[in-house]
Amino acid sequence: MNNLAAINFGKVKLSCFYLPILLLALLAIFLSVHNAWTVNNYIAVQKEAFFKLNLLLSTYPKLMDNLTQLGDALVIISLLSALLIYSPRIFAPLVLGSLISGLLCCSLKWLFRVPRPAAILDTDHFMIIGKKLVGSNSLPSGHAITVFTTLIVILFAFMPRREWKKLVWILVFIILSMGISMTRIGVGAHYILDVMIGGIIGYISAVAGIIINQRYSVWELISKKHYDAFMIVVFLVCCGILFQKIIEQQLPVFYLSFISLCISLCMVIFRLIKQQRKEVLVK
Q1: Phi-psi region of 35 (alpha: psi -120 to 50; beta: other; left: phi over 0)
Q2: Domain boundaries in the chain?
Q3: Pick the CATH number of 2-222 from 1.20.144, 1.10.10, 1.10.8, 2.60.120
Q4: Which of 94, 111, 149, 241 could form a disulfide with 101 if both were Cys (CB 3.0 to 4.6 A apart)?
């Protein structure tokens, strides 16, 4: 799996930026046509669609509350932590992509300062699930950025070779990414365009992380010898944070992530012990 990821990452080119740039351009045209570059008009142009979609999605409050937690980097990466053990090559692009996405997310939220739905709209017209968010940091959706950044790195890492399998693989990941991201509308935390723009930025961040790692061999700077020890420390810290989340909110998604992380922790500990035994035998 590690070799497969390395080969597939090598196939990622600058041309992968064409589609997200085109989508951003189309969104910019849409906003221009509807004179929606001001905060009030940006909200007004999608308000009714937000109400309808929120009403539809909030019909499943428990599902929304659980799936939306996957927009937390700690939760989604913990759930997929076994991939970091089987294929360490995805570690560097994932970290780089996450750093880029974090920088873009914070910068754009500060730049646009769009009020959250609960901060400006009548809450009698839509459902809020979980914590009520009322800040002026709606655009873009940070959860959507995190989900797309993480899943797009994995999409490219394990891309099948056959064309029909590639198509199915891409469709599954795009649907999964959009499905998780749209829960932000279901819980009443973001507008539709917040999520769409967040998803595009997440894709761009993931591709940028892969290309930077490819161009500058960031993975080679990471000591393979100490990778397992480093992951053990990281996993232990994440276990502690997840355990705290479980105490505060008994959501099934937290339990699943915690169990997945514990299994991955055991796997990496056993692998490290096995490796050290081999080194002792060689000596």
Answers
A1: left
A2: 2-222, 224-283
A3: 1.20.144
A4: 149
